[in-house]
Amino acid sequence: MKRVVATGTFDILHPGHIYYLERSRALGDELHVIVARDANVKHKPAPVVPEEQRLCMIQSLAVVDDARLGDSEDMFRPIEEISPAIITLGFNQHFSEDSLRTALRSRGIEAEVVRIGAYEGPGYAGSRLIMQRILETRCSGEGKETDNTD
Description:
This protein is α/β, with parallel strands linked by helices. The protein has a single domain (3-122), classed as 3-Layer(aba) Sandwich (Rossmann fold), CATH 3.40.50.620. Helices cover 32% and strands 16% of the residues.
C-alpha cells in the first residue's frame, strides 16, 4: 500500500487545490491530507475559513482517503503516524524540497518528496484571486449586491 501525503492550508477551496490533490492521489494507493492549523499559518495571511471547516471540506472530497488537522507543535508528528512513501508539495508551497528531505531524514522518515506543478486550467486558482473578485463584485460600494444568500 503506497501512501501519499499532501499538505496545505486549503483556504477557499478552488480548482488549483483539486488539481494538486488529484495529482497527488495519482502517485499512490491512498491520499492522506494534512490541513494546516490556523495558528500555524505564518508565511501568508491568516486563513479566512476556520480550520475545522477547511478540514470538513477536504474530508468531503472523493479523491481524499483520510484528512486531519496538522499538529500544533510538531509538523512531523502526523507524517510519522501516516508513514507515507511520498509527500507532495504544491507548486507555491514555501518549503524547499531539499530542506524538507533533510528534516524528514533526521526524523527517520524516508518518504520521497515530489513537487506538483501549477494548475493551468480555467477558473480561479488562488484564494487571493477569489477574494479579490468577491471584493470587486460584491463589496465595491453602495447599491451593489452584497447579500450572502448564495
